[in-house]
Amino acid sequence: MARPRQFDEDTVLDAAMAVFWAKGYEATSIADLMAVMNLKKGSIYKAFTDKRTLFVMALERYMERNFTGFKQMLEGHESPLAALGHVLHNIVSEEHLSTAEAGGGQCVVNGCFMVNAIVELAPHDEEFKHILQRQVARIEQLLEDTIFQGQGFGEIRTDRDAADLAQGLMVFIQGLQTDARCGFPKDKTERLCRMVMDDMRQKRAA
User: Fold this and answer.
1) Which of 1, 24, 74, 113 has a 20 to 30 Å separation from 159 between CA atoms?
2) What is the mean pLDDT of residues 182-189?
3) DSSP string over 4-39
4) For 127-141, how does the pLDDT look when each residue is reduced to its tens digit (9 = 90+)?
5) Residue 188's closest CA among 92, 114, 119?
6) Are 202 and 156 in contact (CB under 8 A)?
């Protein structure tokens, strides 16, 4: 009879996610994972097979939360355009508050775990590329639905397809998340967000 696990899987996956998020896949060692998960090497391999499998589980856990949070950010606003503005405002605020202690007392911005994985792994790993492409497509669909609704309300420009506007907005969002990790100032990103929102808006005839 198999012995029951002596740990809570949600707790240890959250711990693994935190260290992968802060350090990236390649730079995270089994020793790092043992320390944050409070598990021995054998227990980690027995429960999760290997570092790669553990990373995929942690990444998918993050992406599901990310998708749910994104969907919630778009809900309950006076208009679709206001919903999109709220998303950009929240992303800027969250990215500039998402910090972790680094060596030497420095404070570094973690950025978006998904975007970090895209930059590190997608260019040379087909499995991760497909996982990340599916997540990007899910979020783009939320944006496209909101933009299409805003076009119907006459507040979002109709000279471009909703799908194209959604893809462009998604690229901008990913850029925001990368900028935050590079330490770009918040006032700069807020100004760029205002420019994007102004470009999205339906222009009234003079």
Assistant:
1) 74
2) 77
3) PPSS-HHHHHHHHHHHHHHH-TTT--HHHHHHHHT-
4) 999 999 999 999 999
5) 92
6) yes
- pTM > 0.90: yes or no: no
**Cα distance between residue 148 and residue 107, in whole Å:** 40
Q: Per-residue pLDDT for 107 more than 60?
A: no
Burial 10-39 (b: 16+ CB within 10 A, else e): eebbebbbbbbbbbbbeebeeebbeebbeb
> Residue 53 and residue 127: Cα distance in Å, rounded?
11
Q: What DSSP element (H or E) covers 68?
A: helix 51-73
- What value, to the nearest 5°, has the Cα angle with vertex 181 and ends 139 and 77? 40
Distance CA(193)–CA(85), nearest Å, equals 8
Which residue bears the tokens 């967000």?
Answer: 193
Instruction: Note the pLDDT of residue 205.
Output: 58
Of 84-93, 148-157, 197-206, give the range with the top mean pLDDT: 148-157
Q: How far is CA 201 from CA 87, 139, 153, in A?
A: 15, 20, 11
Strand locations in 48-145, DSSP E?
A: 99-101, 107-109
- What is the C-alpha separation between 80 and 152, in angstroms, rounded? 10
The pairing of beta strand 107-109 with beta strand 99-101: antiparallel
